[in-house]
Amino acid sequence: MPTQASLLIKNGYVVTMNPERRIIRDGAVLVEDNKIINVDKTDRIRGHHAETVINAKNMLVMPGLIDTHVHLAQALLRGCADDVALVDWLKNRVWVLQGNFTLEDGRASAKLCMAEMIRTGTTSFVECMIHTRYGFDGIAKAVEEAGMRAALSKIVMDSTGYADNPDIMYPGMVEEKEASLKEADSMFAKWRGKSDGRIQIWYGLRSLGAVSTDLFKEVVQRSKAHGMRMTMHLGEVLDDVRYAKQKNYPNLTSFAKDMGLLGPSIVFAHGVHLDDADLKNLAETKSNVSHCPASNMKLASGFARIPEMLRLGVPVSLGCDGGPSNNTYDMIREMRLAALMHKSVQNNPTVVSAEEVLEMATIGGAVALGLETKIGSLESGKLADLILVDMRDIGLTPACNPVSNLVYAASGKCVDTVVVNGSLLMKRKHLLTLNEAEIMDEANERQTELLSRAGVRIETKWPVG
Ligand SMILES: [Zn+2]
Q1: Phi and psi dihedrals of 84, rounded to 5?
Q2: 362-390 pLDDT, tens per residue?
């Protein structure tokens, strides 16, 4: 991995995301080893003789983006489940395809996903559920080689339902309770603190209906004992609410509270179907919500109550979800959607500003990862996870407010350079740790093979000659 003893990024428009949200025109960031040691005006840092110097003229210099809800395995499913209803999407496409994965598919999909994330400015992510058949070890090795910072969550489950629908899971997606717990614990023991501390291992609770109340309680207890964090989809579909009601709970968070799930060490993905008491419970316990606007719109899941959550103090971050539900892992485009959708839903253009969305994608993500003292902003002493975004672009001109241009007008294609833990992963739009051409060729071949192995045909709506 391209690492240098010192790195100076100078002459940029530095969006620090520090507690004062200081922005520095003609600013610089000085990195030594894996840490930021100074953030200031370029002329105040001049005199330092860094081993590598990058001129960031016309660029935003900002914390790396943090995607808190990613399915690495779904990158290989891009385009395989468009414009279909949710049950069809899950039962006849996504589960069938993922349930036919080989270990090599799992590794190839993870590399494809990470190449896209790095190219579009994501430096850290939460992978929410790794099935044994995707090859946890191979994926962790791929993260180590790619150089990203990641929380990798091992699926834990003990039944075959999905919310209030019993026994509907595709056989290839089912795991046994003891085996799933054992693999989570062995991967934790193996990878804890490896890759310079870039990799965390979490529990990925499969979903309501696939985890019994006993298993929920057991995982919570293990999570506390080992210091392992947890993530789970919550309230993405109304079926989740029906599940809680069948169990005699008035809402989803009263069920989650009884299981011991609420608190700062869990990330709930989606959080769409939540009532007033739910929002209060999440705020009081500082339980994290990963907001996934593209996925919620594409699958018509509904609209998460993000403006209310922000007002109440629920920790909110952003997630791209997966290849069949988004269909990109581009956090800059996700920020744009998050900033737009709530205005339309609430008929009020003042809810959720560009600045609030940028907070979700940076410092909010750091909170979700439990790393807010280490990443999420550009401050002396923090780890050097940062990106340069090229704003010298016809679509980003003129530039009276670069933060507005970033959220409302840019895309991941504008990202120029990516640094994680002090190492350059992309420089001047060239990936340094992953071979993009090889990854694309392999992904195309593997998707074709996977579709045929799974017996899934993707019909194009128009004739292809
Ligand atoms: Zn998801």
Answers
A1: -125, 160
A2: 999 999 999 999 999 999 999 999 999 99
Task: Render pLDDT for 17-74 as a digit per residue (tens, 0 to 9).
Answer: 999 999 999 999 999 999 999 999 999 997 678 999 999 999 999 999 999 999 999 9
The CA 61 to ligand 1 mean position distance, Å, reads 30
Q: How far is the CA of 94 from the centre of ligand 1 (A)?
A: 11
**Ordered domains of the chain (ranges, CATH):** 6-63+382-430 (2.30.40.10), 66-368 (3.20.20.140)
C-alpha 80 to ligand 1 mean position (Å): 16
| Residue pair 141/465 in contact by the 8 Å Cβ criterion | no
Rounded to the nearest whole angstrom, what is the distance from the C-alpha of residue 405 to the centroid of ligand 1? 28
User: Whose CA is closest to 219, among 249, 250, 178?
Assistant: 178
How far, in Å, from the CA of 319 to the mean position of ligand 1? Answer: 9
Give the predicted TM-score (pTM) of the model: 0.98
CB 56 within 8 A of CB 11: yes
**In 75-176, alpha helices (H):** 86-87, 95-98, 103-119, 136-146
